[in-house]
Amino acid sequence: MNKLTSITGAGLGLRRGMMNELRKCDTGAVDFFEVAPENWIGVGGKLKRQLHEIREHTPIICHGLSLSIGGPSALNEGLISDIKEFLNEHEVEIYSEHLSYNDDCGQMYDLLPLPFTEEAVHHVAARVRETQDRLGRRVALENISYYLVPEQDMSELEFVNAVVSESDCELLLDVNNIYVNSKNHQYDPHKYLQGLPGDKIRYVHVAGHFIEPDGVIIDTHGAAVVDPVWQLLEETYRLYGNKPTLLERDFNYPQFSELERELAIIHQQQSKCQRTIAA
Asked: Nearest Cα to 10, choosing from 264, 245, 238?
């Protein structure tokens, strides 16, 4: 299993469309980049050279999209092998995936919610353990946003905690997803946050969202982070200490200066937490 991470500070999701702009900008505000390995495995030529150039001065971590860790179909051993090779080649310290599924004899390109049941806990945990054994490292699972639950014998929080405990994996804590789900499913986000296994949190995601006319909140990663989500992030640091934090922005890209502004907020909150601990 992998060692404690040296990844710290504030990171940004790396998209191919950003590569040329990043080469022109001062990326000193970015402590690490996050990539989806599926989008880079087997890529050669100019893009591969650019990725190696970025790696030379800024570490990368990986956030998977296609493993379908909770799915009904057999785990994709070929994909796991390719991911392991990519992680080793690029000296990636953190690999995360979603606590969801996205295939059933075919890729569905959506993060589908799992039933919150004991049976699902055992099913997912067994698949996580197998994946970790094959990779030779722990996986961090992300709490996803969801808009319905197929079956529910326990709360979302109980389900997340049970999977993390039984699989001995780590947690990628998405604070925007806590906020989105708390509004859509009417629960207290602060109690949820306080009930998590803080010692298992590997790193954090923060992002923006969209509010539909009927009030339903959609986790889009296409807007600026809102104040209540920033407040949840600050509470996360108060409860669990500084954690590496990734700013997600998947479309509606603003000027890089706007991303720098949001990264600066993360750094400010982390510094505030550090000063509080020191005092």
From this structure: 245
CA atoms within 13 A on the CB side of 143: 33
pLDDT one-digit tens code per residue, 104-149: 655 555 688 999 999 999 999 999 999 999 999 999 999 999 999 8
Q: Please, which residues bridge with residue 204 across strands? A: 173, 245
Domain 10-278 has CATH 3.20.20.150: yes
Tell me the three state secondary structure of residue 95. strand
Q: Which residue has the tokens 């922005």?
A: 249
Q: Where are the domains of the chain?
A: 10-278
| Residue 252: partners with Cβ closer than 8 Å, 6 or more residues away | 222, 223
Strands 210-211 and 217-218: antiparallel
Average pLDDT score over residue span 250-264: 88
Instruction: Kindly write down the DSSP assignment for every residue of 70-89, as one continuous string.
Output: T-SSPP-HHHHHHHHHHHHH
What pLDDT score does 78 carry? 96
Alpha carbon separation from 213 to 182, 210, 220, 254 (Å, rounded): 18, 10, 15, 24
Position 149 scores a pLDDT of: 87
Look up the pTM and report it: 0.93
One-letter amino acid for residue 70 of the chain: G
